[in-house]
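Summary for the funding panel

The consortium committed to producing paired sequence-structure records for every protein in the target list. Below we show the first two records in order, beginning with the earlier of the two.
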Amino acid sequence: MQWIPFAMVRIAAVFIAGVLLCIYQPDLISFESVTILLLVFMTIYFLARSILRKSPEIKLVSGVLGLTSVFIAGYLNVLLKNESGREDHLLQFNDPIFAYQIKLITPAEEKERSFKRIGLVIKVRTEKGWQSSYAKVALYWPKDQNIVDPDYGDILLIKGQPKVLESAYNPHEFDFKEFLRFKNIYHQQFVKSGEWKLIQKSEDKGLLFYAHRARNWSVAAVKKTISSSRERAIVTALVLGVTDGLDTDLLNAYAASGAMHVLAVSGLHVSIIYGILIFFFKPLGKSNSANWIVAILSLVLLWGYAFLTGLSPSVLRAVMMFTFVAVAKPIGRSTNIYNTLAASAFCLLIYDPYLIMSVGFQLSYLAVLGIVYMQRPIYNLWEAKSAIANWAWQLTCVSIAAQIATFAMGFYYFHQFPVYFMIANLFIIPGSFVVLVGGILLILVSAIPYVSTYLGIAMEWFVRILNEGIFIVEKIPYSLISDVYISATQCYVLFGIVLAGLMLIHFKKIEWMSMIVVGVLLFSFLSWEHLLNDVKKSRWTVYRVQGHTAMEWSEKGHSYFIGDSAIIVDRNNIKFHLLSNRLVNGAMDIDAQTNFNQGTLQIYHRDGKTFLWLYRKLSKLPTKLSIDYLIVSNNSLMSLKMLEEKISFKHLILDSSNSIRYSEKIEKEAVSMKKECHSVLKKGAFVVEL
């Protein structure tokens, strides 16, 4: 058994396994028990190393004990970094909170209808007075509020109590609560005008304070020199990782063409900067001292770039990865790229174990691993005859390698695959090189009047041409395979098939072909199971989309959707609240209707069930009507008692177009009348198999 070549890969893999176990089973073992267990295994490890140091089995025994200790350390690290268990955490407060002081720890992030900032609660005011507390809170302000100006570290006084985040209300909807939990955020508040004020300027003028200042200055420099909002948004996204201002059409075009990766500062951008640095430092030679000089200068400039972007998590992740790559060369000849990548991931996960749940983290490392392992073998399949063809073929090989490594995750998370990614990447990768270098130069010379003006004009036109190219690729027929659903298990199976295929090519053994066949059969079985259990079954869903009516019958790939006129044309709400459930149910053929202009009620008969939908206040009720499901919208029913002796129903559903107060009132009446009632606002979507 060879333990040496990929030592760091094994350590990182086992550590990740411990992290994942704790994330999914946090209550499996207590903090005290895990700590004792780690100390016991570490003690046995060192004793075994000393007692069996001359034994031929020492490598196996010490390896098993050491990796077990690493696994336990991964589990323990999650428990240590989980802030919700702190005694002073906001989750532990049972008394009403009237106000709180909060320290801003992120810059303002522009959303469609609001600004978002993350803050750290330091004090809360309850009936007992001011008390020390701790919690990260996601704060949202209307766009008319000047929340952009306060600096990192400024302290605000906010009226009210942060609301504990709620789980997803609709089936298969994106779980925002879980997403923020992985950032140790458990509360949010929508802050209105007059509910906040700045009470103290930042006293903590450390590295992060100046990094945020540098980021704001960089964004202002780009805004000053590039007038077009669309092109400016691309430059700030590609150079600084600031995605504010990217419109939906532009995002859809980049996604459909397979160029979305350039809009988030990642390993691609840092690799461009690192490649430029290596090129300029090449004259220093290849001696060990020269390698150290190159490594140190590279680190200074890479971390300087990270500082310019405000030390955002995605940039830190990429810079950390290349920090290990830069240092690996002068340290020793035996270091391989896989151990280097594993070491960077290991260090990042020690700092923040929840990064393993970040889609960006997963895609970044998978793409880099794919490029490292597959790019050269793919490149060797064809020998280009000219320099231009060779350059294009190299870019194509990088794109193919990255897509092979990440396509399964793209299907799982984004439900799509860009067909013409190779065409788009032929110009978007070199184009991003120009924008990145030009953007950094633009920021650095922004104080020089004529130079910055003309450079800004050149950048604006270049990005405009780049965008036009992306829109052209998007308009090519069948540019995007979309609305694809695969389960988490199917995603793992696809990874297994790809891995088995790579092993087959490498080792040329028939066993790996057998693994591919087994994987394909398993994937087919899971698809058939999904077809029988989800797609072919008839379901009725009343969604929770606050302020709207939204209900849907789905069966065998067809959907009959009823909603108000606003929700039917609201692509963002449909994508966020409904689309995932439609994908799971295989509902591709959508028949959307609204009946609000047709009377006050509607009766539907489906699958042997009768549905009565009341959407306007009634002056006269039908009599002697027996129904299975009564749906009430828009506070249309004055009282349940109006229905006595006129309408008989089995289930009452109050949809999300009703007010909270009205829903509570009708619920109480239903309880007193011993009627089954489901308030969508309170309990989430109502789903039933018919």
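The next record, for a separate protein in the list, is shown here:
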Amino acid sequence: MNRKSKILSILIFTIIFVFIVLSFLVVFTSCSSDIAEVVLTISGKKDNIYIRVKNFENQIHQGGRGFASPHSITIFDRNKIILAKIYDRDFEYVSIEQIPPYLVDLLLIKEDFTFFTHKGIVPRRILVSILKNIRYKRNAFGGSTITQQVSKLLFTDQTKTISRKAKEMLTAFYLEKILTKDEILEIYLNIAFFGYGRYGVAKASEFYFNKKVEQLNFAESAMLISIISSPERFSPLKNKEITKSKISYLMSRALKVGYINEKVADYVKNDFIENYDFQKLGTNSYFNIENKAPWVRNYVLSFIEQNYGLLKAFEYDFEIYTTIDINAQFALQDSANTYISEILPQKLSNIEDENKIEISSISINPETGEILSFIGGKKLSPVNEFNRAFYSKRQVGSIFKPFLYLYAFINGIVTPMSIFEDKPLKLELENQIWEPKNYGNQYYGNVFIFDAIKKSLNSVMIQVTQKIDLNKFIDWFNENIALYIDKKTKEKIMPYLSIGLGTFEFSPLDIATMYTPIASLGNARKPYLIEKIVSHQDIIYSNIKEETYNFVEPKYIKELIWILAATSQKGGTSYTAKIQTNFNYPVYSKTGTTNNGMDSWFVGFTKGLLTVIWTGYDLNNGKTQLTGGGFSAYLYYLYIQKIYPFFAEDYNFVDESGKLVNICTDSLLIANPNCPNTVVIYLPNELIPSNNCNIHQ
């Protein structure tokens, strides 16, 4: 048989096959509901389906969630205030009368134009679907009516099989017999998936537009309907061009049937979608009364998913009690909004950077390890879900310096009064020349260590680092400071001189963990957020607090933290931010800036409150150079001044081990009233000079 004959034979066979299938469907459809009832009766499923449908209708009419189970996951803060309550499906019933008529009309134009005349299926559509599947050799075209889609959602597992399709068609015929057309539409519009966990038009309108469904206009309704077949793929949150093409297709169909005119079609296809801004319209839905802390909610759900599975959590109605303080969380979220909307636009030199820049923050109680608040980014949304506070590893810059200085204090390598020459350095390392520079290329000559820390001088830090056995330092650091940091991160810390400039990468949570031994005067604490999980009054998880030990005498840490108070004083790296935000509480802090200006860090702490702030560019593509004092410090001061009186407590710098001493910086002895240059500094007893200044009598 030649090629032409073979093709002709296949064509004839296809035509005969199509004719037979079409004839069968036409005959079957004419008495479809009766046949379906008989088949379902014989199979013993008729009563189950009838009861299922009627129960479903009763549930949604009474404000229930229809096919969704009545289970939930509830997240509490430390004071048992609800932070979030999550149902297994985010659903809210609305009657067909509440839904704008044009939304229903657009649905029918797009999905099922003959809905009010067919009896459950449309044979022609099924045949077209079969032919397309044969042509493209894949099961991609369904040809389902709205009745079939209701049947699929309620009674099948939604797998793409012939048996499922047959069951879907059979139950669709039966639904047409026991429900009115409006009832079928009402069910469908209440259970259709609109992406990102939202089911039904009520939740979709709230999510995408922050509106009740009754308030949707024509263009908004068109957008929802245009993406309904694959909402997350076609969503404007992912790709506006794809959404635009889907809306264009819907408008073309509406125009073709005479439902709208050219002017309306052009507006919806072009102007509306171009101006749609989810960040302004949709984000508010994340801050409703049942989701007061969206970043916390996402973290907790992720923890539950990994350790128990969400299905189990819903089935057993998990109650998760966290260490989060709702007042601190709200203060952080509110301060972040101010920082984003007012501070960043003023400080960024390129307007494009406003969309590139991101933030994160975490606060813990260093005495206990409890995480009090955190945010993982500017705004949590489906396009911004990455939790930078916990998982974003970034170069940390100068906020690493205090660990080296503390080691140097403990081992007597330097003291706060040691003097180094702050100068340009030119070092030969492995046949390469390295020239580390101070920020702004400024040098101050002979300086005390306390001034080097205050001004965050790179030159002095490198000179101190040269005096340290870095292998021993890393061992000490990993065993004491980084005790609870993951092994993979610690393994990347190498004994290079650049360690003093923070060239290794840590997350904000890592930094908070590493600063805990400093803020708590020597006790390493493992930060934690989930206190316990309860199911039907049974505790199924309880946080096990790690045993702590004091790895160093507090006097050495007090030497360091007293100097860290100077970074926010005149001449310090965050002084300007402190003044401009009207902050007037005592804090101990360190700024950090990476060499390429892509990361801005700030660490601030007191006896009861430790906070880490990061501002930067995820993709290292910003044009504005960032600094710790010029950016992240502002968010810290905005936030902490709102909660300081409720969480923070100052340190006691007078004890049996040391005290505050007024030192003459000319003689390095105890200052006399006539000494012109003095500094008040905490010193351990063994470092306190025994004599008064002999220069200024």
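Regarding this second record: Residues 65-88+294-322 form one domain. The CA atoms of residues 105 and 689 lie 88 Å apart.
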